[in-house]
Design goal:
The chain has helices spanning about 5-10, 15-25, 30-40, 45-60, 75-80, and strands spanning about 65, 75. It is mainly alpha-helical and about 80 residues long. It has one domain. Strands 1-2 form a two-stranded antiparallel ribbon. The longest helix is centred in the middle third of the chain and has 15 residues, at about 45-60.
C-alpha cells in the first residue's frame, strides 16, 4: 500500500486515528509514519500528528526531547520532519 493510500485509509476510517495507526504500525517503516504525521499536520489535525510522532519515536526508542510531568518525552517537530 502506498503511503498516500494509507493516509486516506486512516483518515476515512471510523476508528479512532491512534488505534488505527497502532494497528498499522507493525507493517510500516518509521519514515512512512513520519510522512503520515506530516500530512495530518498539514490538513490541520495538529494534536493527532503530534501523538503519531510521539508513538513512532517511542516505538523505535529514540532518545531526546524533554520529559513532561508524566515522564513522556516531548520533541521539537522541526526535528521530526
Amino acid at each position: 500500500m502506498l503511503v498516500w493510500e494509507l493516509i486516506f485509509h486512516v483518515l476515512s476510517s471510523g476508528d479512532p486515528l491512534l488505534k488505527k495507526v497502532c494497528m498499522l504500525q507493525e507493517d510500516l517503516h518509521v519514515s512512512s509514519v513520519m510522512v503520515l504525521a506530516a500530512m495530518i499536520l498539514e490538513i490541520g489535525h495538529d494534536w493527532w500528528s503530534l501523538q503519531i510522532v510521539w508513538l513512532a519515536q517511542s516505538k523505535i526508542g529514540l532518545e531526546g526531547g524533554k520529559r513532561d510531568f508524566y515522564g513522556r518525552r516531548s520533541f521539537d517537530c522541526k526535528v521530526c520532519f
